Amino acid sequence: MSTRFRQSGSKDDLQDALKYLSEAKAILPTEHPGHATAGSDLALLLLMLFDTPESDEGLRMTSESFALFERAVNHSFSSVKARFQAAVRWAREARRHKHQSSVQAYAQSLILLNRCLVLAPTVESQQNFLVGTDTVPKALALDAASSAIEAGELRSAVQLLEQGRAVLWSKLRGYRHPLDELRAVDEGLADQFKAFSSQLECLATSSEPAEAKMQLHRILSKDWDDTVKKIRQKEGFADFLQAAPFATLQKAAVEGPVIIVNINRYRSDAIILRDIGDPILVPIPEISPNDLNQLSSKLIKATASDGRDSARQILPILRSLWDNIAFPVRVQLVALGVPDKSRIWWCPTSDLCALPLHAAGAYSSKVAKPNNLPDCYISSYTPTLSALIGARSGVLTRSTGPNLLVIAQPDDTLPDVEKEISRIQKLANNVHVLKGSEANHDTVLSSLRNHSWAHFACHGHLNNQPFHSSFQLHNYSHLTLVDLIRARLPDAELAFLSACHSAAGDLVGTPDEVIHLAAALQFCGFCSVVGTLWAMEDVDGCDVAEYFYQHMFRTPGAIPNFRDSAEALNLATREMRKRLGLDRWIKFVHIGA
User: Fold this and answer.
1) Pairing mode, if any, of strands 268-273 and 258-263?
2) Closest by CA position to 136, among listed 84, 92, 80
3) Could you report the per-residue pLDDT of 333-383, keeping only the tens digit for each?
4) 41 and 28 in contact (C-beta within 8 Å)?
5) What domains lie within the chain, and their CATH numbers?
6) Structural element, H or E, at residue 180
7) Beta bridge partners of 343
């Protein structure tokens, strides 16, 4: 009947559909799993029938509709996927009808999205769920944040963006949650959690087909969930692995402001997060998701061009990013008293993740004051606030300098790698080089565990399956993103990826998952990572490395600090700007602490 209504427009058909569905729902047993779908269907029909809620009856039915949505989403006997679909419908309709439950609906949808991912045993199957169906709205977290902003709830907007982005990394981080405090209270429970987490992480990163692991995954997931519930019953652990509250997320800004950029179909904003006080909203209404899509397409075309033509095509992109995003943020940072040359962190969303926001600028000689972002601030990126907080935690105070591992694969296509190695050896202390046959898969992984700094000088490869993106090692073997995820590197600090595409997003449409080699190195322990957004010239890696390490090892006898790496990259690219086109230096980015 509802289908016939859509074709005919007759309200008689709609009323018949409402009657039959109401009767069907009424006879369902309380514990029947069909309640979530039936309830949300009924809510939609009511909203369609009473689409003009000015009347008393319309207002009453609208209120009843959203109550039905809420009951459907909270029906514990329905499947998680059915409840998630009901929550997405609820959020969409609440937004359309400007109903007060909009933010609540989005929050519930993000909670249930994370629970849906638990049903998939591997990170690849989880990623396929995010992109392979129409079930998950691609901008769900961004829509949620914009709804909270409209409601004047900036703290909630920050929390919702954190909860709904990089969910694959968040799930994996949960398996590696620090247990020192729990161990002091209940060692047995800590051991139990660690055991289940280790097994689930092994399943998640295994190369076996997902179908072969479903039963074991279900058993382990239930055991893991039961253990988490027990932990939360312990005094002081009620928030264990719960979505981080704003007070926790705010700690990401202790060393400088973090700018979250949410460009959404409903509205576009930057949110400046400081370590005290409320977030600061910077509306940026002149840019839309469609604009980002066009800029991304132009960038792909530009980076495929050669020489001056590439720089000429990139310049309008940088100007657009400056005019519409960076300059409004710059004005607000100046008003807040953030000094020039300060460090700032960008947390971009959606297609903005693939654009060189750190290099935004007017690049005009007609203006005396700084009108390019690299001249105003030292920019870093972070995929999420939690990732930045994690990058700063547990860092050891060193009494000796770092040991630097150089992984290199010189060949006919990388003739300057030998020169790159030589320059690093002249500038840095305690350098260990793996090249040629020594730079094989097992030796590289083993050596990474014993070195706090790492420098990759080899080919980087993107893959249509993003977890198979890789560094090319000896004899065309590959160190994949999944290999890096599995690694545990407790002493890692700094990684310099002098390789193509090492910070480039995946090719299949999940930019908010930030699935690239640099992110994998950050996950496995490196606090700061230098990477590239697209292909690089071999000689540029050599030059950037020289300028970079000159700064890192600038003081003889002093212990180099990985926290200087963002400034070192800023200085290195500034040197390159003196003699090269902007297409040659803007591809280098700094991620993390």
Assistant:
1) antiparallel
2) 84
3) 999 999 999 999 999 999 999 999 999 999 987 766 678 999 999 999 999
4) no
5) 2-119 (1.25.40), 178-240 (no CATH), 247-387 (3.30.420), 395-592 (3.40.50.1460)
6) helix 180-185
7) 378
